[in-house]
Specification:
With about 230 residues, the protein is α/β, with parallel strands linked by helices. The chain is built from seven helices and eleven strands. The two termini are about 30 Å apart. The structure holds cytidine-5'-triphosphate and ligand LQXTBERG.
């Protein structure tokens, strides 16, 4: 990594697809909440200067308590999120300290990201201005219409599954979010708001294990992956 990085961790989602009463970011993975695993990774990186944590408004107090309990002293702000992920990112960006020049955005529910992958993403962003972690898709992907009929099979060679963190020069990402908000555009990741300005975003090598915990079967898989990482 170069310079010092601000990190926006978004965790204000409802976890509808997980279907649990408690939002998925607060479920336990081994000994602690999924969100705490995620925060600890970014806390541990030497070049992380500040972390903004974005959560639901009713979860702010418990998250502030965890910041103290787990010694997450790089978390400089815990703020309330918005209706869509993109709104939550924008709110988190605004809460980063003014002197931060480079920023990563990461899903609170990707607790298995590694320091090495983060480093690859940051290096790519510094070279190109904007990067996302990604892995080539393994399956054949089909585009299917509302009647369930296949209408296209895009060339797999050009298809990548996009992950986080996504890393940007802060001024670029802020401008992109302001433009998106002004024009009512809502995308599912941060690269989309930058791409639409015609600014290139490069992919950096992600890991297939950097899963986004989304549906129930992801929980035992995440537990297994964590177990595999324990030293013998
Ligand atoms: N309004 C929102 C929506 C999502 N997120 C965060 O964005 C990340 C990726 O979103 P996703 O996996 O889709 O989470 P949810 O929106 O919670 O899940 P679902 O779509 O199943 O409800 C998660 O860390 C989630 O908490 C957020 O901060 N604010
Ligand atoms: C940002 C992201 O994790 C990249 O894969 C993803 O786009 C989030 O999408 P979701 O609709 O919030 O699951």
């Amino acid at each position: 990594m170069v310079a010092q990085w601000g990190v926006v961790i978004v965790a204000a989602g409802k976890g509808t697809r997980m279907g649990t009463a408690e939002s998925k970011q607060y479920l336990a993975l081994q000994d602690k909440p999924i969100l705490v695993h995620t925060l600890e990774l970014f806390q541990s990186l030497a070049d992380t200067k500040a972390i903004t944590l974005v959560v639901g408004e009713h979860d702010i107090d418990r998250c502030r308590n965890w910041v103290t309990q787990y010694g997450l002293d790089k978390v400089t702000a815990v703020v309330s999120g918005g209706a869509e992920r993109q709104h939550s990112v924008h709110l988190g960006l605004k809460a980063l300290p003014a002197d931060i020049e480079w920023v990563m955005v990461h899903d609170g529910v990707r607790p298995l990201v590694t320091a090495e992958a983060v480093r690859r993403g940051c290096e790519a962003a510094v070279r190109a201005g904007a990067s996302v972690l990604a892995v080539p898709v393994k399956d054949t992907i089909k585009q299917v219409n509302e009647a369930g009929v296949i209408v296209a099979t895009p060339d797999r060679q050009s298809l990548w599954a996009i992950q986080t963190p996504q890393a940007f020069r802060r001024a670029l990402l802020t401008h992109a979010h302001e433009e998106a908000e002004a024009e009512g555009f809502v995308g599912t990741d941060d690269a989309m708001v930058v791409e639409r300005l015609g600014v290139p975003v490069v992919v950096a090598e992600g890991d297939y294990t950097n899963i986004k915990i989304t549906t129930p079967e992801d929980l035992p898989y995440a537990t297994f992956l964590l177990e595999m990482r324990k030293p013998l």
